[in-house]
Write a structure and sequence with these properties.
It is a single chain. Helices cover 20% and strands 29% of the residues. By secondary structure, it is α+β, with helices and mostly antiparallel strands. The protein has three domains: 281 residues, alpha-galactosidase from lactobacil brevis (Beta-galactosidase, Chain A, domain 5, Distorted Sandwich), CATH 2.70.98; 167 residues, TIM Barrel (Alpha-Beta Barrel), CATH 3.20.20.70; 107 residues, Golgi alpha-mannosidase II (Immunoglobulin-like, Sandwich). The strands form six sheets. Strands 1, 6, 7, 8, 9, 11, 12, 14, 15, 19 and 20 form an eleven-stranded antiparallel sheet that branches. It has an eight-stranded parallel β-barrel with strand order 21-22-23-26-27-28-29-30, surrounded by four helices. Strands 5, 10, 13, 16, 17 and 18 form a six-stranded antiparallel sheet that branches. Helix 7 runs parallel beside helix 8 and helix 11 packs parallel to helix 12. The protein starts with a strand and ends in a 6-residue tail after the last strand. The structure holds (2R,3S,4R,5S)-2-(hydroxymethyl)piperidine-3,4,5-triol. The site of (2R,3S,4R,5S)-2-(hydroxymethyl)piperidine-3,4,5-triol (DGJ) has 11 residues, from loops.
Length: 718
Amino acid sequence: MTTPSVQIPAHAHLQAGGTSVVLDLQSADQPIIVHWGEALGPIGDDELAGIARAARPQRVSGGLDETARLTVLPQESGGWLTTPGLEGDRDGADFSSRLALTTATLSSTDAEFVLSDAAAGLEVQVSLTLGVSGLLHQRLRLVNRGDAPYRVGALSAGFPVPPTATELLTTTGHHLRERAPQRHAFTVGGHVRESRRGRPGADATLVFVAGTAGFGFERGLVHGVHLAWSGDHRLIAERTPTGDAVLRAGELLRAGEIVLAPGEEYETPDAVGSWGDGLDAFAARFHEELRARPTHPSRPRPVTVNTWEAVYFRHDLETLRRLADRAARVGVERFVLDDGWFQGRRDDTAGLGDWWVDAEVWPSGLSPLIDHVRGLGMEFGLWVEPEMVNPDSELARRHPDWLLRARDDLPPSGRQQQVLDLSHPDAYAYIAGRLHALLDEYPIAYLKWDHNRDLVEPGSGPHGRPRGHENVRALYRLLDELGERHPGLEIESCASGGARVDLGILQRTHRIWTSDCLDPVERLDIQRYTGLVVPPELMGAHLTSPVVHSTGRTVSLAFSALTALFGHLGIEWDLTAEDDETLDAIAQWVALYRTHRGLIATGRRVHADLADAALDLRGVVARGGGEALYVHTQVRTSTAHPPATITLPGLDAGRRYRISITVPVGAGGYLGQSPLAWESEPIVLSGRTAATVGLRPPVLLPHAAALIHAIAVDSPAG
Ligand code: DGJ
């Protein structure tokens, strides 16, 4: 029940999904989050008051007469002398605000505060919401109540983390190697990760995590933040010399990007905080909340074939029909025609923007292929890259003013392309019109929506304003509009692989293309760390051809399939070149995925913290703990020979499980010289024993993997 308050209470306690947020509403001008983390249960006002009092810092020598507090929007006027929550000005004036709490609206899971500074003519609405799984969402809305324009420099949400958080984890990367983890000490000062690419970028950090030293996936208290935004952003981890530590997340605004006229407002993207004992618990909060959305894809994820690595730009109806035949034979349910189908698109130098089916290559349109695909019982999907334009296109020739630029010259090109200003009403109308027309003309169930370059100087024209923010908003509007006009349409977010992975885009799309790298060796980490936010069923994972195109490595089908298993399975491989034996083997893997995809799409993802870095053990545990599926991978040779025991995390400690292992034929090889004791006859262990004592894994060649299946043999206790 929501209680708007005339009189502001002394504290607030939000609780949901095993998480508590305690706010002190009295000790400073603004609310202070004095606890964010473990649920505290039904505690009374006296204890809340105790928490608030216990958190008050003393005055110290050399400091201000009152030690500044880390409030929801810390500001210099309150003595906060590190990164403020709001930066902006009116041509130099009102550079420092004094926003104080004026109203609070509270429920058991939500808090809405209005902070006002009448003198500066500013108001900020701060909303905090705890989601079903305990994710903390923060949104800020700044309103210009003054009578002159206010230029917004930065507005960010802050998430305080405990002093035990001494280590930071972020991700970095590049095309073909997204979300590579990096860790370092959380020392005093600001640690900044930002994107200035107009999209998050392959190097963007998906999360900023702070935790106890050496935290892993199973253990170690971690708190972290993700920004649900598909454009420029700045994430900061800041430890102050006065004993506070905070993670800040906000959009990165270019000079003059947001100037609020009197009465106008700017709303930040959703900043989302998670926490847990170990990164798996942290990730589970994201997965659970995403799965609870009414829009979450609930039907079994259709096994997909994507034509890119099979044919690239070599579009030819007969070849593609043969590929479709082969795809249907191995159990594929969705056929996606990638780049190369539209006007003038014979390679990647031309055509983007001219969204008509190329009459030379497709004289009868796409129907002959689509009819064939659908006749085989598969859905049809189509690749598009609506925000991009090749200078060599009719669109660029006719509407040069629709391209983003900051001067007469165009910005440096990327993949021979420039970027359409989707915030230009005519450009938007054109693109929306073309997409609607295609979707109306053909039975297209799925769009692969690509975005293949960083934005450079994204301005509205010579001497114009930066348009990065408006372009993200226009993109969201367009995706929403497509969803409304074409019910049932699914969209994949791709950006040179995984350069646009965030919860802003995922609110409007149905999966992400995780990476252009299909090499299972690389994919192990790419998927592990993408999974910190994205649940497996939204993560595209494709079988590669035996020689991986992007790395040149030769890998076994079994290794590729077992690595792709915990994702949304697809195939990206010229199946027309394969013999019956290989197609049969692929069909078996597809069948295995189809058997377990329900579990994969609903279960809890787990990773064992193993001492042997040459091993990777990950799995999915069914809700209720009745079953679990694990993949054990020998990433490289272990120093121990045979390797030491591994553990199986996530099972119900008090239940017993029948645990079996399959080392697939063709998995690259079994190296043990005597049988593994529990291989021929499944073993029965309790969940506690499996997670603590563990068991010996098979001795495998590097790049081989085995499947471990645990099924409960008794009911849950109680
Ligand atoms: C980049 C994507 O990541 C690939 O999967 C493919 O769709 C190409 N673009 C097509 O140009």
